[in-house]
Write a structure and sequence with these properties.
The chain is an alpha/beta fold. The protein folds into 2 domains: 3-36 and 102-205, Immunoglobulins (Immunoglobulin-like), CATH 2.60.40; 38-93. 28% of the residues lie in helices and 37% in strands. Strands 4, 6, 7, 8, 10 and 11 form a 6-stranded mixed sheet that branches. Strands 1-2-9-5-3 form a 5-stranded mixed sheet, with no helix packed on it. α2 (38-61) runs antiparallel to α3 (66-93). The protein is elongated.
Length: 206
């Protein structure tokens, strides 16, 4: 059985994950949802316009009058081709391709807690996670308009995405050796180049 709660602090959203094993926090993801921009909507509209024009080619091909058949094939065919080509090109023209050109960041990220090699007792144990971000700013929503040094924090526990939070949170972990990895990512949730990452290893024992 899992219980989840959250509070808002000065440094970001703090999410308490009450679980015997690491899990993905849906509320944290929903809190980052933003509007992707105009390009995807334009591209989808052009795609459906191209499909409509292709249907026009099919319709005109069955018309009894030869002149209309020829004009329909040429006109609707050119329109269909143009729409489908534009639907592919428009996102590139509006720069809605965040993966092609990753931004850089001068921000630095480090763990304040837990400390490297720290031993936490419990079965399971509550671990307080606190991060320090210098030169960067945490923003609440996602966007394809990338701004250097603005973004989100992704927190991984033993290689699994645990949450998308602010700079502090609490997690419950089982006994054993664990590795926390935090990454300051751009506002589209993609990495900076080079990545802004902090890693710490700690142990939980009974």
């Amino acid at each position: 059985m899992q219980q989840r709660g959250s509070r808002h602090g000065e440094r970001g959203v703090t999410i308490r994950v009450m679980s015997a094993s690491p899990g993905f926090d849906v509320a944290a993801v929903l809190g980052h949802v933003g509007i992707p921009g105009l390009a995807p909507f334009v591209a989808v509209g052009l795609f459906f316009a191209g499909i409509g024009a292709a249907i026009g080619v099919y319709w005109s091909s069955g018309h009894p009058r030869p002149a209309i058949r020829r004009a329909g094939r040429v006109g609707f065919g050119a329109l269909a081709l143009g729409c489908l080509v534009l639907a592919t090109v428009v996102p590139f023209l509006i720069h809605a391709t965040p993966l092609l050109n990753r931004p850089t960041s001068s921000a630095r990220l480090q763990f304040v807690s837990p400390r490297a090699g720290e031993v936490i007792e419990g079965d399971p144990a509550t671990a307080s996670v606190e991060l320090r971000l210098d030169g960067g700013k945490i923003v609440p929503t996602s966007s394809l308009h990338l701004v250097p040094n603005e973004g989100h924090i992704h927190l991984y526990l033993d290689g699994a995405l645990l949450s998308m939070t602010g700079l502090d949170t609490q997690i419950i972990v089982l006994p054993g050796l664990h590795t926390l990895r935090a990454e300051f990512v751009a506002i589209d949730h993609g990495p900076f180049r080079p990545p802004v990452v902090a890693v710490v290893t700690f142990r939980v024992r009974t």
